[in-house]
Write a structure and sequence with these properties.
It is a single chain. With 271 residues, the protein is α+β, with helices and mostly antiparallel strands. The chain has two domains: 3-28 and 147-263, Alpha-Beta Plaits (2-Layer Sandwich), CATH 3.30.70; 42-124, Alpha-Beta Plaits, CATH 3.30.70. It contains seven helices and 13 strands. α4 runs parallel beside α5 (190-204). The longest helix is centred in the first third of the chain and has 29 residues, at 3-31. It is elongated and about 70 Å long. The chain starts with a helix and ends in an 8-residue tail after the last helix. InterPro entries: Nucleotide-bd_a/b_plait_sf, RBD_domain_sf, RRM_dom, TatSF1-like. Keywords: Coiled coil, RNA-binding. This is LAFE_0H16468g1_1.
Length: 271
């Protein structure tokens, strides 16, 4: 890669920093405004078989249409099968997704679907108490939302097999860097960043055991430290020039000259 391309890469990184700083200021401004009521991301499932259906069964079936939300207190999926006073299942359930577009997809694909021999009904949940009577103070809700998002982002963006594990900055050849993952001009919510980080990490787990994972939103990069050199090399080989959300990923080892990777790529326009 020549000096002109190196200079262009530096300028684009600087623009990314400026753009993210702008987004941060905008979030601070928006944070002072009254908080809007959360979107309903829950579905109500009825006409389920009253026997033999577990929460795990529903999670498996409905996770095809989006990420299912977890409770911040106990890390359990927000899925409940309703029972009568004797503890016998009534044949209906509630399930909560993370993204607002997931319920529509689940309803389209699963409403009227034959599940365990019965045609189930799937619809957007109607809350008489939990959502419609939203009485939590904005400040308290904002605090809880911020704490939960920060915890989620920290867990996903900075994940390691061992809390004492060295970071990718340590000298080793087992770390792969995936660049050009995000569009610097796009607006991302914390949950969206967490989803992208999760997708990247899970996609890399097929190559081998991961010891350390870090997602850098500022540089639009992911750092993945593998247990073996073989796994790192396989990841670098398979992920370089692969498309993710319409963007061409650049993959290289941490101890590798990035110019070797970029000069062998088809173009430089994605950065």
């Amino acid at each position: 890669m020549d000096e002109e391309e190196l200079e262009l890469k530096k300028q684009l990184k600087l623009k990314k920093k400026e753009e993210l700083a702008k987004r941060k200021r905008q979030r601070e401004i928006e944070g002072s405004r009254p908080l809007a009521k959360p979107q309903n991301t829950a579905i109500y499932i009825s006409n389920l078989p009253v026997e033999g259906v577990t929460v795990d069964d529903l999670i498996t079936e409905f996770s095809k249409y989006g990420m299912i939300k977890k409770d911040s207190k106990d890390d359990q999926y927000k899925c409940k099968i309703y029972s009568d006073s004797s503890g016998k299942p009534k044949g209906d359930a509630l399930l909560v997704y993370v993204r607002p577009e997931s319920p529509a997809m689940a309803i389209e694909m699963m409403n009227g679907y034959t599940f365990r021999g019965q045609n189930i009904k799937v619809e957007l949940a109607q809350f008489d108490q939990e959502l419609n009577n939203y009485k939590e103070e904005p400040k308290e809700y904002k605090r809880r939302k911020t704490d939960t998002s920060a915890k989620l982002e920290n867990n996903l963006l900075n994940w390691s097999e061992d809390s004492d594990e060295k970071s990718p900055n340590a000298e080793n050849d087992h770390t792969v860097i995936l660049a050009n993952i995000l569009d610097m001009y796009a607006e991302f919510q914390p949950q969206e960043i967490a989803d992208i980080a999760r997708d990247i990490r899970e996609g890399c787990e097929v190559f081998g055991e991961i010891l350390f994972f870090k997602f850098d939103e500022l540089l639009a990069e992911a750092h993945i430290q593998f247990a073996t050199l073989e796994a790192a090399q396989k990841c670098r080989e398979k992920m370089n020039n692969r498309y993710f959300d319409g963007r061409k990923i650049r993959a290289y080892l941490a101890n590798e000259d990035i110019s070797e990777t970029l000069s062998s790529s088809e173009d430089f326009t994605d950065f």
